[in-house]
Amino acid sequence: MPKPTRAIAPPAPPLIPARWHGGDQTPALSVIHSTVSRCAPGGARATARYFQTVDRPASAHYVRDPDELIQCVGDHTVAYHCGYNEDSLGWEMTDIPGPVPDDKPGTARWKALRRSWRWARPEQKRMLAGLAEDVARAHLAYGIPIRYLDVAGVRRWDARGRRPADGGITTHAVMSAAFKRSTHWDPGWWPRRQFIRLARKAATRIQHEVRP
């Protein structure tokens, strides 16, 4: 696994500031979300503009579409993205999640939503690869391991003081299940093993680029 290093700067994309945010934090975990909107160029800016006008406390640090990353909240400021927000970075994918919880496993609809409907599409693949590189850069900058954390993993991260060294990459669904402060289940099914591989590969390349 690539080793985190503070010699690498976090992402610095265009900023469209969100209306809602909280106090100070130390980035120590990445939480992956879906925007419940079409995966297409321009989607990141559209979601960022939504965060400027939404009436309820809702925001994320970053939004990614196939072509662009947009920042909405600074990394060291709490964003309102998963209910249990402190010391985590919220990453929104322009994506309509599926299957939904009521879809019966094994049905034709369930299989379509789980596989071909989303992640076989070129724009989804491009977005996933771009987000993997973005997350890799942030994790290298803040000393966060590039690994997936399940419910037990995020609870252990929390119990140990939410330290970057105990962190990793998880989803809104996992945070909802672990801390019961949200009922959201996004991103539904997503190729998390592929995502971790892409992020580790990107981290290795980034580290090689900065070595003298």
UniProtKB/TrEMBL annotation:
Q: Which InterPro entries match?
A: Amidase/PGRP_sf, Amidase_domain
Q: Which protein is depicted? A: N-acetylmuramoyl-L-alanine amidase domain-containing protein
Its domain of life reads Bacteria
Q: Which Pfam families match?
A: Amidase_2
Q: Which SUPFAM superfamilies match?
A: N-acetylmuramoyl-L-alanine amidase-like (SSF55846)
Taking the record's annotation, the residue ranges forming a coiled coil are none
Every N-acetylmuramoyl-L-alanine amidase domain range: 25-188
